[in-house]
Design brief:
Order of helices and strands: EHHEEEEHE
CATH class: Alpha Beta
Helix content: 10-25%
Largest sheet: 6 strands, antiparallel
Number of strands: 6
Number of domains: 1
Structural class: alpha+beta
CATH architecture: 4-Layer Sandwich
Length: 129
Amino acid sequence: MQALGKHILVEFYGCNPKKLKDTAMLQTEFENAADMSGATVVDSTFHTFSPYGVSGVVVIAESHLTIHTWPEYGYAAVDLFTCGDTVDPWKAFSYLKSVLESSNTSTIEMKRGQLNDFEGQLRHKPACA
C-alpha cells in the first residue's frame, strides 16, 4: 500500500511527572528523538502552561513530532508523523518511552495519504513519496 506517511498516535501513561513539567528537557529530548529516527529537524517550539503542563512541536522536513502533557496524571499525548521511507517513527517512540519513564503505552499507527486509488489523478509526484 503506497502512502505518503506514517502517523503514530501515542498514549504514554505512568510517566515521571517531573519530566512532564520540564519544558527545556522535553524540547531537547524531542529533538533528539527526531534525530534518532532519521528525521531532519527544521524548528521547534515548546510552551509551559500554568500551573503545569507542556505543549510542544518539533517540525521536521518529513512532518512533525508533538507532545501535550498532563503531569498531574503522569500522562502525555504524543503524535509522531513522518513521511517517506527514510525516517522510522518507531525509533522515536522507543526513545521517548524511555525518556518519559512511561510504564504503559497505547499506540495506533495510521497510513496517511494512501494514494493507490488516486495515482492516475495526481498532477505531480508527491515530494515525500
